[in-house]
Amino acid sequence: GAGVSQSPSNKVTEKGKDVELRCDPISGHTALYWYRQSLGQGLEFLIYFQGNSAPDKSGLPSDRFSAERTGGSVSTLTIQRTQQEDSAVYLCASSLGQGKETQYFGPGTRLLVL
Amino acid sequence: GNSVTQMEGPVTLSEEAFLTINCTYTATGYPSLFWYVQYPGEGLQLLLKATKADDKGSNKGFEATYRKETTSFHLEKGSVQVSDSAVYFCANSGAGSYQLTFGKGTKLSVIP
Question: Do the chains contact at A91 and B98, CB–CB below 8 Å?
């Protein structure tokens, strides 16, 4: 079956603009995660959604970052007033549930803030 | 909190050489342990995992054993191929937790 898909694959934006990144999880997966991969920080957890529960936003680096998940499926990560330090690859993953379930990753969105 | 430490790269090996990439972790309780691989130009893929002490994960000739006494999950392969050239990430998810904590990654280059 189809894996996790993300769009766009690449995004170039100017400092101060808002960007939206999209993630389509694997069908039937109730858990969805966003991570960020950057040269300086490695792979960092950002946010986690499980079913209809309130998301765990503990990894979001600032209030410029937000995410939503509509209908328990597609998720959008929004970065407002982008800064150059936001440049990174944003990865989405999904799993059947939480805990010890394997997370399957999408190809990522490479964001470059000029 | 959770943490993962893996050996710094890059690692360069000749084809058919033996590979070890060290990984140690800290976590509360009994975490699950993972190795993910990122091939050039591709996304993260699960390579293998282990969910309890003494479990051995294996895939594509790679192996790693969950060692609770040494809090380690070292990745090994007996004979590497050029196609194994990639970045390898060790990760854990703490007991009762769900977010993955990753190591910094180890870049492996295998030369013919």
Answer: no
